[in-house]
Write a structure and sequence with these properties.
single chain, 28 helices, alpha/beta, 33 strands
Length: about 900
């Protein structure tokens, strides 16, 4: 049985670490439970000492341990530290695997890996044979890959490996909440807490002057810390741009100051220089949030925290990701300040106020809520997942982002629909894409480029195309590796450069050839891109090619990776384009790409009204043919008021070419015309007064008698157009054609035959009054009492108000004067005769003396005629 050679008082550990106090309880919990959570503060030894200690556990039975780290730098550094504690070289007991790099051997029993590496291993070996424990370090960072790996491991536990142990570790995390979430799939999940060995850190708040740019403010705070405190200084900044500007300011103020940047894209040697202590010089480390993790930077006693970080956020409405600079969360601020208390009492300068501190969100938002989910979804498709929501997520992914991710993968031919929706199966193309450790977009580009023969480039056909001949053009495969490397790295050119990716390829190839810098490129970024391109060439067995790149080949490759971002110049515009997704974008003013008829766009921000293009290349319509589809399109021209039918060859929302469609598909005609009616409303039809009254009568009875009567409101009619209107649209092509339709017959068909007779009984069109007249009723759609507007003299002798609805609803009487003006509005005719009529008679008989105004209306003869007419008839 393997026993860890690391004693509690190891010579390489200067003093007992807090993790040793929690180790006995942790050993017991791991032996008894499948999943355990360890909460331990920074510097407790959880990332370096604990994994080595656990190698000798009996329940491990000689199996290996895999520990996940969120970042490559931390993975390498943590593995090196553990190997040194064992007095060994990397690759013996302890090793690591990161993208394109590994230090392992047959003797390795503890592997530190980045999260994507574990996912790859699970895909090839779902049972994780030979692995007894998986450790998730720094889980509070809630990276998407960590969430995915944990969900997959939980599924492996439940289906294949009940003996597999999972240890989730964090410095700042809602451990009890996480325990409850994981218990649903793993049973009881205990929490073990290490109290920690954190020295006190004095926090000094420096409220920010909003008129001072952040780099100047940070440089001023560093100068203050240099004057007030001893020891090395760690500065947290949002990104590489701010690091460069702060470095320039500090070098101008403090000549000779030892300043070291630290961020993920730096070469390993420069990263290590920032981490290890310098025995002679005092150093200032300018870092991104990478320094918040298990990574320990020796010698730090002072922290200057800008209070900001930069994170990618995916917008499912646009399908685009963009970097946003956001306030740090409270747990991140705590992590950062804790870096000053690793070796002894320290100081943290926070460039915000205590009031702002109280308003910080408690914890950072999980990446799964804001990320591009396409890479995760293709992994799940390979895993065989049909319903993403059924996975054991700590935080479920947003529905909109899932839909957007699947749409992209379908356009890349990585997944296909199964029987019905949503199940999607991975394709053979998708499996090949997963073999390449990169985003599905880049993988698709690299795979497709392998199939492009040199002759596939169309010869120059216009002045817009490159003047190179096919023979002079660079090789597709080599060009694809350069383009892929540049897309994965930061932009090597200054922010104000042209968006043309071809310039970046030129700069990279000159750098590869003779280390010449073109177009003001950043040598560090070019060096990283060069190494990445070389790695892709090695993996794909491609020869290096430093020939000048053809811009249109670059554009075609970009279109392979971003088929949803092909853009066409808007008519009459030089800078504005329409993406194939339908979104509007624009180039920066004076960009040399302006006016190009077609662009393939790689990087852009989502923007508010329209996005801004940061990286693109010109494209030729001939090269875009593979991305298009023929579609029969039937649309409504609102200006002409007519259907327009044509066959279009389209890329998404953009038509490359069109031709008239002689025979309109009936389904498209119907769908378009129904959309027109819903947009323009029922006013397209001819409504008679009688038809509106029919509608009001039906709705009145529905209100009186209940749901057995149909809802014929305008809103419901628009909702149910397919049922009553659809069959009658076969001859409608123009707006005028709607007016020729027999709307009355179509609507009448909505009333079942057994209700037609009842409608006339319950809501008659007319009522006979004592004079013998058939007087029209006016119904209201809201079911209120219908109005009977009738001359008062025609009701003589009638004691009670007439009714409808089978006697249940009194009509509203509008009693009219001989001039047809309302004298009284009432539903109580008896009360009117008794109380109001005498006053009405007194007032009206002088004004209308030609009409009868008897003293006794109860017994008078109802009539429509004047007094003189009545006399003539009587005479």
């Amino acid at each position: 049985m393997f026993r860890c050679p690391l004693p509690v008082q190891c010579p390489l550990v200067s003093e007992p670490l807090p993790i040793f106090e929690a180790l006995p309880e942790l050993r017991v919990k791991l032996a008894q439970h499948r999943v355990v959570i360890l909460q331990a503060p920074p510097g407790a030894g959880k990332s370096t000492v604990l994994p080595v200690e656990l190698l000798g556990e009996n329940w491990l039975e000689g199996q290996s341990v895999v520990m996940l780290e969120p970042r490559r730098l931390a993975a390498r550094t943590v593995a090196a530290r553990m190997a040194s504690l064992l007095g060994e070289e990397l690759g013996q007991t302890v090793g690591y695997r990161v993208r394109f790099e590994s230090r392992v051997s047959s003797r390795t029993r503890l592997e530190v890996v980045t999260e994507g590496i574990l996912t790859r291993r699970l895909q090839s070996d779902p049972g994780l044979e030979g692995v007894g424990l998986v450790i998730f370090d720094e889980f509070h960072e809630r990276s998407l890959n960590a969430d995915l790996a944990l969900a997959l491991c939980l599924e492996v536990q439940s289906a294949l490996r009940e003996d597999l142990k999972l240890l989730v570790m964090s410095a700042t995390l809602d451990s009890e909440g996480l325990s409850g979430t994981l218990a649903a799939s793993a049973g009881e999940v205990p929490v073990v807490t290490a109290t920690g060995r954190q020295y006190p850190v004095e926090v000094r708040y420096l409220p920010r002057d909003l008129d001072t740019p952040l780099p100047a403010l940070v440089a001023g705070a560093v100068s203050r810390a240099l004057a007030e405190e001893q020891g090395d200084i760690l500065v947290f900044l949002p990104g590489v741009g701010e690091i460069s500007r702060v470095q320039e300011l500090l070098e101008a103020r403090h000549p000779g100051l030892y300043i070291l940047p630290l961020y993920g894209e730096l070469p390993l040697e420069q990263q290590q220089a920032a981490i290890v202590p310098d025995p002679v010089r005092r150093k200032v480390v300018l870092a991104t949030s990478i320094a918040e993790t298990s990574l320990t930077i020796e010698g730090i006693r002072v922290v200057v925290d800008s209070g900001w970080s930069r994170i990618p956020r995916f917008d499912s409405r646009t399908g685009l990701s963009r970097l946003e600079t956001v306030r740090v969360s409270a747990d991140s601020a705590e992590q950062r300040s804790g870096r000053a208390g690793r070796l002894g009492p320290g100081v943290c300068y926070r460039l915000w106020s205590q009031a702002t501190q109280s308003q910080l969100v408690a914890q950072r938002k999980p990446e799964i809520l804001e990320a591009d989910l396409a890479p995760t979804l293709i992994e799940l498709a390979q895993w065989g997942v049909r319903d993403v929501g059924q996975m054991a997520w700590v935080t479920p992914p947003p529905v909109g982002a899932v839909r957007q991710g699947y749409e992209l993968l379908e356009s890349l031919e990585a997944v296909e629909l199964g029987e019905g929706r949503p199940p999607r199966r991975i394709t053979e193309r998708g499996r090949r894409m997963l073999e390449l450790p990169t985003h599905p977009r880049i993988a698709h580009l690299l795979i497709e480029a392998q199939a492009l023969a040199p002759a596939t480039l169309q010869p120059p056909t216009s002045i817009e195309r490159s003047r190179k001949t096919v023979g002079e053009a660079s090789d597709w495969k080599a060009l694809a590796t350069d383009v892929a490397a540049l897309l994965e790295e930061r932009d090597p050119l200054p922010r104000n450069s042209s968006a043309d990716l071809t310039l970046r390829v030129e700069a990279l190839r000159r750098w590869q050839e003779d280390k010449t810098l073109l177009h003001g490129a950043d040598r560090n970024v070019l060096s990283r891109s060069e190494r990445l391109a070389a790695e892709w060439r090695r993996r794909l067995r491609v020869e290096c090619d430093n020939a000048p790149p053809d811009p249109f080949r670059v554009g075609r490759l970009l279109a392979l990776a971003y088929p949803d971002r092909v853009a066409r110049l808007r008519e009459g515009q030089g800078l504005k384009y329409k993406l194939s997704s339908g979104r509007g974008v624009r180039l920066n003013e004076y960009d040399p790409l302006q006016g190009q008829p077609w662009l393939a766009v790689a990087h852009l921000d989502a923007g508010e009204a329209e996005g801004r293009v940061w990286l693109a290349a010109p494209a030729h319509p001939d090269d875009l043919e593979p991305f298009g589809k023929t579609a029969e399109v039937v649309e409504w021209n609102p200006q002409l008021g007519t259907l327009v039918a044509q066959r279009e060859f389209r890329i998404g929302e953009i038509a490359l070419r069109t031709e008239p469609l002689r025979q309109v598909p009936e389904e498209l005609r119907l769908r378009t015309l129904l959309r027109v009616v819903r947009s323009e409303g029922l006013g397209l039809f001819t409504w008679s007064e009688g038809l509106r009254q029919w509608q009001a009568r039906v709705l009145s009875v529905r209100r009186w008698r209940g749901e057995g009567w149909p809802d014929v409101t305008d809103m419901q009619l628009l909702e149910s157009l397919e049922d009553w209107l659809g069959p009658h649209l076969t001859r409608v092509n123009r707006r005028q054609d709607f007016t020729t339709l027999d709307l009355g017959a179509m609507l009448s068909a909505l009333l079942p035959w057994e209700l037609v007779r009842q409608l006339d009984e319950l809501a008659p069109l007319r009522l006979q009054v004592p004079s013998g007249s058939m007087v029209r009723l006016e119904y209201a759609p809201d079911g209120s009492a219908p109005v009977l507007a009738v001359k008062l003299q025609e009701l003589f002798g009638l004691a009670d108000t007439p009714t409808v609805n089978g006697g249940r609803t009194k009509v509203m009487l509008h009693l009219l004067s001989p001039a047809q003006r309302p004298i009284q509005v009432t539903q109580d005719l008896r009360s009117f005769w008794q109380n109001t009529y005498p006053e009405v008679r007194k007032e009206m008989r002088g004004r209308y003396n030609k009409h009868p105004w008897p003293e006794d209306p109860w017994n008078a003869t109802a009539t429509r005629k004047t007094t003189s007419a009545l006399r003539r008839e009587g005479g």
